[in-house]
Amino acid sequence: MLAPAGESPARLLALQALVGPRPDSWQDRLWEYEQCTFVSGRVTTRRLAQWFKGGEQPFALGTVRTTIDFTENTGYTKIHVPSLARYNSAQLDWPSFRHTPGLADQSHFNAPQNYLVGPGSAPSFPTFGGAFNAFFYDDYAISGVANSPQLNVSINVVDNRARIRRVRVKPASIDVWLGGTKVRGALLELNGVEHRTVVEIEKPRVVIPLPDGLPSDAWVWLKSGSEWLDFRPLNQWGGTLSPDVEIELPRDPAAELSYLATIGEGQFLEYKERLPDTNDQKRKVFKTVVAFANGAGGTLVFGIEDETKAIKGLSGSVSVERRRLTDMVRDLISPPPRVSIDAGDVDGRHLLVLRVHSSPGTVYGLILDRNKPEYYVRRDGTTFYAHPSEMEAIGDAGAEGRRR
Question: Which of 1, 269, 308, 346 is a plausible cystine mate for 239, CB 3.0–4.6 Å?
Fold first, then answer.
């Protein structure tokens, strides 16, 4: 993203780059406004490296021309991101290294206060923040978007040395499928409270025995020396499991419920104090259910106050509330998503747990008005209206899965 050319020359304000396979959602496009310009495209790794060579370098992407300079930056950071990272704006199948160098020209940029009206096919936005999120993250929601997003430079370099492809946890063993150019000879570590072990990798599938069952707070680490190459938590860390982790163990509902009630809300977990009654209350609850169903799934726990996280419990008959929740899921969401509903007690207070399962390729809508279905997605722990491109991507994911 660049500031207007009137600055002589236009100044680079924000940049995101990926060295590796391009995500399906990334497209070559140009949005030009009077206040700023957004541009995306493909360049060779040689040209990308040239931009970071040092000193003022020419920057050209599509028809956009300016200069770029990283020589004076002092805020450079580099972090290692695992495969399928939920907190990454571009979820990648491989681990990656995220570089965030600072620009030499850090002079202040005043975010445009006027509407950004795009000529031709470029979309228009009431706020600069809305345009920024739409271009960089394909998030076209406007409500609640800050007008001054963080402007920075981020380069993700795909690390194809080794990755975890699939994990299956069984009562007596863990099966781990691996891939990568240097996975042979690396180590696979299971680390838990009651049991720990390390296995040297000889084949793309590793079986780790569990003599006493799966230990609590268990993680698997793919590592080489003191460096991790990839990892997976096996304990719903952050409120969910990675989509490539399968758990085939006898369930302990009481322990699961206590864990969900104390872990705190996140991308795949929300608390609600009670079941909804009015249409406004139903929208607030079931738009999240729809977003979970349109994404990777998620969990709602009823009986916990969502602001204070205090366990209040549900009043009245739990069996009646459970039937009412089942009816609302069936009546308010089309098509009905795959869900499971459990009931249990924490500290003597009754709770209901609604687990929403992912169904790639199916688009779910909230039906409060039969003539106006509403579609939602989940981003960074918040529910947003779905953009048509996101709904199309959901359908494309299902088609791709069927081809496989």
Answer: 269
